[in-house]
Amino acid sequence: MSPPLMESSASTLVIYPASQPQQEPKNENNGGIVFGSNLQQMQGEMPKEFLWPSRDLVDTTQEELKEPLVDLAIFKNGDEKAIANAAELVRTACLKHGFFQVINHGVDPDLIDAAYHEIDSIFKLPLSKKMGAKRKPGGVSGYSGAHADRYSSKLPWKETFSFLYDHQSFSNSQIVDNFKSVLGEDLQHTGRVYQKYCEAMKDLSLVIMELLAISLGVDRGHYRRFFEDGDSIMRCNYYPPCNSANLTLGTGPHTDPTSLTILHQDQVGGLEVFVDNKWFAVRPRSEALVINIGDTFMALSNGRYKSCLHRALVNTYRERRSLVYFVCPREDKIVRPPDNLLCRNEERKYPDFTWSNLFEFTQKHYRADVATLQSFIEWQQCSNSKSKPSNF
Ligand SMILES: O=C(O)CCC(=O)C(=O)O
Question: Per the record, what are the reactions this protein catalyses (predicted)?
């Protein structure tokens, strides 16, 4: 029987030998590697740029994490006892690993389906079109093929398309306009779907902020107010099937530098979370949304809540997709824990910083990994730029 690999008609990874003349666009830093279309057969031997060290690949158990499933219907019912119980579940999970899932979250399942459908509209575009929408150096928006224009080793086996969502925008077409200008009129409908998706994510994120505040015992509206005028980031991930899935990763081990991540993965599975020195698989649940704490929220909780260490595996036979909404504060907001969170004489774990500084650090100086926040704090404290830590 032929492998189900052939099911995939979406774009796949293509390697161009550096010496071979190319019709396709070539990136600046890593001349040999770009993503292309319908050329899976060229995959051949795994290119070294995609090989990950064995320490990042080991322990691929299929043991599932027993993370809490938090039912958000309680917010509609206004049942304070149920809300307190949910907050306790969230607190336990965030103190331990920073990860939980929510159900009855109010996001229309048809909207989630439509958002998946539109992932295909983006990644099945011709390579030239995608490269025309390529993310600019230091920026976050646009198309990226394996981040090959930024890094030359440990490349993730995936394509991404990212865009910003301003929580406060008066325009109800900010994303539609962005898609039209970056990918053309044909992608207007895709923009409309993601406009709605981001609006739903923003609303949900504020409910979760309220739950987090309750769980930390601070003013219930504190984080909601802090993020109301945020500038979030939406990312569509497309992971092509990979002949050597055991040698590479779709997304390497990292914590998110952002505040809170709301993720939906398709039924293929591959998301893993690191808990008690072990990687655990996260079971795909179509009705649930995955929530994880990021570095900025860890700072906002004075280190009480853990920024979740996670990664994504690729599949030998099946393409995989995920929809990721990274909640971020407005860029100039000062990140500091609320006063009433700090117990008397409790030391601040992290000095004040702005999201724009941390963001710049991760875009220009540091590849997000397990130590991003600590490295950023050291970087900020170094007055001499030459001694600033960097892992590029
Ligand atoms: O695709 C996934 O499940 C994880 C994605 C992720 O961690 C990321 O895009 O930062």
Answer: gibberellin A12 + 2 2-oxoglutarate + 3 O2 + H(+) = gibberellin A9 + 2 succinate + 3 CO2 + 2 H2O
Range of the domain at 205: 5-42+49-381
Distance CA 97, CA 277 (A): 11
Kindly state the DSSP code that residue 308 receives in the 8-state scheme. P
- Clarify whether 320 is annotated catalytic: yes
Pocket probe mutation, ligand 1, options 147, 279, 310, max atoms within 8 Å of Cβ: 310
pLDDT in tens, 225-257: 999 999 999 999 999 998 888 889 999 999 999
Report yes or no on 390 lying in a domain. no
Mode of pairing for the β-strands spanning 353-354 and 33-36: unpaired
For the chain, how many structural domains are there in total? 1
Residue among 318, 320, 336, 348 flagged as catalytic: 320
Whether 213 contacts 247, CB under 8 Å: no
In a domain, 301, yes or no: yes
Q: Which residues pair with 121 in a beta bridge?
A: none
Q: How far is the C-alpha of 253 from the C-alpha of 314, rounded, in Å?
A: 13
Task: Judge whether residue 265 has pLDDT over 70.
Answer: yes
Q: Is 251 in the pocket of ligand 1 (CB under 6 A)?
A: yes
Is residue 389, in this structure, part of any structural domain at all? no
Count of CB atoms situated within 10 Å of the CB of 13: 26
How confident is the model over 346-376, as pLDDT tens digits?
Answer: 899 999 999 999 999 998 889 888 899 999 9
237 lines ligand 1 (CB under 6 A): yes
Beta carbon of 268 within 6 Å of any ligand 1 atom? no
* Torsional class of 211: left (φ above 0), alpha (ψ -120 to 50), beta (otherwise): alpha
Answer whether 258 contacts ligand 1 (Cβ < 6 A). no
The stretch 252-278 carries a mean pLDDT of: 95
Q: Are strands 231-239 and 320-327 parallel, antiparallel or unpaired?
A: antiparallel
CATH number of the CATH domain containing 309: 2.60.120.330
179 lies in some domain: yes
Interatomic CA distance for residues 197 and 262, integer angstroms: 11
CA 33 to chain centre: 23
